[in-house]
Amino acid sequence: MKRSCYSRIINTPIGKMIAVASEDAITHLDFIEADDNFDNCSSDYNLLLRLEEELDEYFLKKRQKFTLPLSPSGTEFQKGVWKTLLTIPYGETISYATEAKIFGNPKATRAVANANGKNPISILIPCHRVIASGGGLGGYSGGLEKKEFLLALERAK
């Protein structure tokens, strides 16, 4: 039996995002470039409409926790790292080394950072809350200016 897949473009203050959902969970949320062609991504599927509402509330500082079911695709290691990301409180940051310790493998800092970079559900799985040990931003697949914006938004509780 083929599973259904729904997609929707969501406008945010820091750019357009493509959201994808299965019948029962959000599977993908990522930034897209203005010239990317996603003409048939206008699904009014309930999960995607709820995601758009929750993101709007997040950007208006009215939401700190997302309530939608998530189902990111990845290896077991990556899924474990992403689960660790979900434990970082809103408005707080940790280092990649600290994340590796919380994950249970303090020697895996680079592998943990690499898994963060493959996070398929931006913002909801908050990889933007992980920074370099020296206090620098580190990396962010959406671009450092977006990471900086998200951290500033959350610090202004």
Low-confidence stretches: none
For the largest beta-sheet, the strand count, sense and barrel status come to: 3 strands, antiparallel
Supply Rg: 15 Å
> Major sheet: order of its strands?
1-2-3
Q: Give the CA-based shape.
A: globular
Q: What fraction of the residues are assigned to beta strands by DSSP?
A: 15-25%
List the helices and strands and how they pair.
Blueprint: E1 6-12, E2 15-21, E3 26-31, H1 46-59, H2 76-85, E4 94-95, H3 96-103, H4 109-117, E5 130-131, H5 144-155
Parallel strand pairs: 4-5
Antiparallel strand pairs: 1-2, 2-3
Helix pairs in contact: 2-3, 3-4
Short summary:
34% of the residues lie in helices and 15% in strands.
Plain-language structure description:
- The protein is globular, with a radius of gyration of 15 Å.
- Strand 1 (6-12) and strand 2 (15-21) form a beta hairpin.
- The longest helix has 14 residues, at 46-59.
- The protein has helices at residues 46-59, 76-85, 96-103, 109-117, 144-155; strands at residues 6-12, 15-21, 26-31, 94-95, 130-131.
- 28% of the residues are buried.
- 34% of the residues lie in helices and 15% in strands.
- The protein has five helices and five strands; from the N terminus they run βββααβααβα.
- The strands form two sheets. The chain has a three-stranded antiparallel beta sheet, with helices on one face.
- The model has no long low-confidence stretch (mean pLDDT 91).
- It is α+β, with helices and mostly antiparallel strands and 157 residues long.
- Helix 2 (76-85) packs across helix 3 and helix 3 packs across helix 4.
